[in-house]
Amino acid sequence: MRLAYLCSDPGVPYGADKGAAVHVRELVGALAAAGAEVLLIVTGVSREAPPPPAGVRLAVLPGPEKGAPVSQRLKAEPFRAAWLADRLRRFRPLALYERLALHSAAGSRAAQTLGIPHVVELNSPLPHEAARYRRLDAPGEAASLERAVLRRAALVLPVSSALFEYATSRGARKVEVVPNGVSLDRFADPRPRREGPPVAVFAGALRPWHGIETIAQAWRALGHSAPRLLVLGDGPGREVLEAAGAELAGTVPHERVPALLTRCDIGLAPYTRDAPGYFSPLKVFEYLAAGLAAVVADLPGVTDVVGPETAVVIRKGDSAALARAVAELAEDPDRRQRLGRAGRALVAAEHTWAHRAERILFAVEQSAGLGAVAQ
């Protein structure tokens, strides 16, 4: 099968270490490993990017780059749609799979021009997220383009149940939840944990909604009984965690993360009380793959995946609950082992990128028999 994969977000270059870029790279690799011939179209390539895996061709979408005004991106839409239609016509894919980006319907228009199915991956309510956490220019155009793409798509694949509701409320005709995943083969089968004090770890950018202050409050409450806290990431929460006694490794290349995680014991993903419910955190899947005892927030995208046998679930943003969970796990190595083994077994059975690729390719084959939804 030939499949085109489009990511027109200028903030997600191929080969970068941020979560969205890791998602793109690993899913594309899994699609190719499953037998698809993939044309990956992105807006840029990181200087540190490795060559694409076997079975993947890389193309760069021309047009405005990161930092360009939204007005330029909107003006470039017709040109990009025409360029995509021409490139796809020459590649002859069965369908166009797109990671939905803000202020863009070029992929939808190109797929409609060629009469091929457009399968849309939805990772967040983009206009709402930009308005809340960054800045949303041209909000009317952003909402209108998103609605048009979701309504015309042959299939929309949100990463969480909360996004299922969002997609259907904006006109999506056919919707199926496909959470994030992990490449289990990057995580060596964990050996029995070493003797000695346990190590807790947080992996990811230190953004407020990830629960940075929640972790700091929990560590202050634990005081001298707090386990060692390793942080793999950087950002505006750095000083808060340092003041609470964390050891910050800074931004770590993604290929090094598995080895560092497997040296730890407890994985943290507490988030904040006002964190959106639509996240499907990559870090949670990585903690499970590494065999950690994970303490996770009760986000729908998390509780749809784990239960009490595979993780400790706490109310999001609850620092007291986080402190209790960490203290109990720190004192109970057998429970840590049980949770770690169960979490890894869950990932191996249901939540690898290979599982996601298999589901996506099956959905594409089904959609190809239907064609794109008419406007």
What is this structure's SSE topology?
Blueprint: E1 2-7, H1 19-33, E2 37-42, E3 56-60, H2 70-75, H3 77-91, E4 95-99, H4 106-114, E5 118-122, H5 126-133, H6 139-152, E6 155-158, H7 161-169, E7 199-203, H8 212-222, E8 228-232, H9 238-243, E9 247-248, H10 257-261, E10 266-269, H11 282-289, E11 293-297, H12 300-303, E12 312-314, H13 319-330, H14 333-350, H15 353-368
Parallel strand pairs: 1-2, 1-4, 2-3, 4-5, 5-6, 7-8, 7-10, 8-9, 10-11, 11-12
Helix pairs in contact: 1-15, 3-4, 8-13, 11-14
Description:
By secondary structure, the chain is α/β, with parallel strands linked by helices. 42% of the residues lie in helices and 15% in strands. It contains 15 helices and twelve strands. The chain has helices at 19-33, 70-75, 77-91, 106-114, 126-133, 139-152, 161-169, 212-222, 238-243, 257-261, 282-289, 300-303, 319-330, 333-350, 353-368; strands spanning 2-7, 37-42, 56-60, 95-99, 118-122, 155-158, 199-203, 228-232, 247-248, 266-269, 293-297, 312-314. The protein has a six-stranded parallel β-sheet with strand order 3-2-1-4-5-6, sandwiched between helices. Strands 9-8-7-10-11-12 form a six-stranded parallel β-sheet, with helices on both faces. Strand 8 (228-232), helix 9 and strand 9 (247-248) form a beta-alpha-beta unit. The model is unreliable at 370-375 (pLDDT under 50).
